Amino acid sequence: MLTEVVANALRHGEPPVTVVVTWLAGTARVVVRSAGPPFRWRGRPARPTEDGGWGLVFVDAMADRWGINTSPHQNEVWLELDH
């Protein structure tokens, strides 16, 4: 999941890209931030045969919690995995 979110930030965002991983009370939390205009996830691609757009579908299926925070010049994708 980490490599997918970082790859998305590098592919669709702008530098700088930062990654913060923390471990708190049995939960691993990953936050990936990148510069760029606000991002909005559109959900599953319309066709299963599409080559792109599946990364966050996998994050949605595997993470215990995750989300996207945006501002006019920065995007943040975070995910949490419980121990």
The CATH architecture term is 2-Layer Sandwich
Sheet with the most strands, sense and barrel status: 4 strands, antiparallel
Q: What integer is the average pLDDT?
A: 89
Q: What class do helices, strands and sheet pairing give?
A: alpha+beta
Placed side by side, the strands forming the largest sheet appear as 1-2-4-3
**What general outline do the C-alpha atoms trace?**
globular
CATH fold-level topology: Heat Shock Protein 90
Order of helices and strands: HEEHEE
Binned, the helix content reads 10-25%
Strand content: 35-45%
Low-confidence stretches: none
CATH class: Alpha Beta
End-to-end distance = 16 Å
Number of strands: 4
- What is the assigned CATH homologous superfamily? Histidine kinase-like ATPase, C-terminal domain
What do these coordinates show?
- The chain is α+β, with helices and mostly antiparallel strands and about 80 residues long.
- It has a single domain, classed as Heat Shock Protein 90, CATH 3.30.565.10.
- About 25% of the residues lie in helices and about 45% in strands.
- The protein contains 2 helices and 4 strands, in the order H-E-E-H-E-E.
- The chain has a 4-stranded antiparallel beta sheet, covered by helices on one side.
- Strand 1 (about 15-25) and strand 2 (about 25-35) form a beta hairpin.
- The longest helix is centred in the N-terminal third of the chain and has 11 residues, at about 1-10.
- The protein starts with a helix and ends with a strand.
